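Field log, afternoon session.

UNIT: design team B
ACTIVITY: writing a sequence onto a fixed backbone
BACKBONE:
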């Protein structure tokens, strides 16, 4: 078996975690406005740092337990963590899956509408692309996270540079101006909570870990990899605090203020790539869960056609949720409730039962995955 590369061992799990988080967590900026702006500029920044630290801790524990138990899909992982209680996680996971895919589909539709196309066209293009990528299996998904991440970090870096150049004085003034900072702990915990489902989503991409050390390193850096673009985005939003909190799509508002058409196109393309990463990660996790059961019963892995059908069924079904409820309502009402559910059925067990099991395990030597 080919030895996993340095990228696959240390960066791939974190980049996959980042990919799932961004599309469902802050690609449009609406989520940052919902969870962090109510605490003011300084409180919002503290809340984001807290969320990042929680992500790193939980990802490290999750990846280490997955490596220890050799459970690389969420079904087998939670069966070994919770026993018969694993079904409770799956119920919460399915609800959150529908919510995140609905948000992703709605955001893709908004991108299509921003170019003058029917909103449904953007959603259908995203759904079709996800179906193709996931139908080709794990190797295809890994390539997507690798190359989409390059585009994402490059465009976010340009976004921050342009934002600081144009709005730097306003950003500094608003950060320095006293404002209420209450609620930043709860905001950070809630935001970290619902996004932590991404740690379970990316379990199929932790197969390359060769040791517990690999898992702990990959998990620890997953937090910064996922949060650094958000911190830059949030800083730019602060130039227009508090009015930006009322914008349905803060990203579109900021791009309008920058008024650089070429960069606007690049940023919209990057958001589409982020949505693609998120949808692909979630659908691939479901495919791997189904494939594990299918292989156990039939002796063969799930085929490409079946993977594509599952992808399209999930995505198109969630489109109806998005169009009937609306983006802002989905984020405001659904995420907080499910965040606390994820904390109860995932984070708490992993950080208690899971960590205890990791600590009791015998020291290991590094071996190929």
């Amino acid at each position: 078996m080919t030895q996993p590369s340095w990228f696959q061992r240390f960066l791939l799990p974190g980049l996959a975690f980042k990919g799932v988080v961004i599309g469902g967590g802050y690609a449009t900026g609406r989520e940052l406005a919902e969870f962090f702006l109510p605490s003011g500029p300084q409180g919002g920044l503290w809340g984001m740092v807290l969320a990042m630290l929680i992500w790193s801790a939980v990802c490290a524990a999750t990846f280490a337990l997955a490596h220890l138990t050799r459970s690389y899909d969420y079904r087998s992982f939670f069966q070994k963590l919770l026993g018969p209680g694993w079904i409770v996680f799956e119920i919460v996971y399915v609800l959150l899956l529908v919510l995140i895919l609905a948000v992703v589909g709605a955001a893709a539709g908004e991108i299509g509408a921003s170019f003058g196309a029917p909103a449904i066209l953007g959603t259908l293009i995203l759904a079709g692309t996800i179906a193709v990528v996931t139908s080709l299996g794990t190797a295809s998904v890994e390539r997507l996270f690798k190359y989409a991440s390059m585009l994402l970090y490059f465009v976010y870096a340009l976004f921050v540079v342009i934002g600081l150049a144009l709005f730097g004085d306003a950003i500094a003034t608003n950060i320095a101006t006293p404002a209420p900072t209450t609620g930043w702990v709860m905001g950070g915990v809630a935001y970290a909570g619902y996004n932590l489902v991404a740690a379970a989503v990316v379990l199929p991409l932790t197969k390359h870990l060769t040791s517990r050390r690999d898992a702990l390193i990959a998990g620890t850096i997953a937090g910064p990899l996922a949060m650094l673009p958000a911190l830059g985005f949030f800083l730019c939003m602060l130039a227009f605090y508090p009015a930006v909190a009322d914008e349905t799509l803060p990203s579109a508002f900021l791009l309008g203020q920058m008024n650089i058409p070429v960069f606007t196109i690049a940023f919209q393309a990057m958001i589409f790539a982020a949505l693609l990463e998120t949808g692909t990660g979630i659908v691939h996790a479901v495919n791997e869960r189904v494939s594990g059961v299918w292989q156990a019963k039939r002796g063969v892995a799930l085929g490409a056609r079946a993977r594509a059908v599952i992808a399209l069924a999930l995505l198109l079904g969630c489109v109806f949720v998005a169009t009937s409820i609306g983006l802002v309502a989905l984020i405001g009402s659904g995420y907080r409730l499910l965040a606390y559910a994820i904390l109860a059925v995932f984070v708490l067990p992993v950080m208690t039962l899971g960590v205890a099991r990791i600590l009791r395990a015998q020291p290991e030597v590094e071996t190929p995955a």
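LOG NOTE: The chain has one domain: 7-352.
NEXT ACTIVITY: expression trials, pending approval
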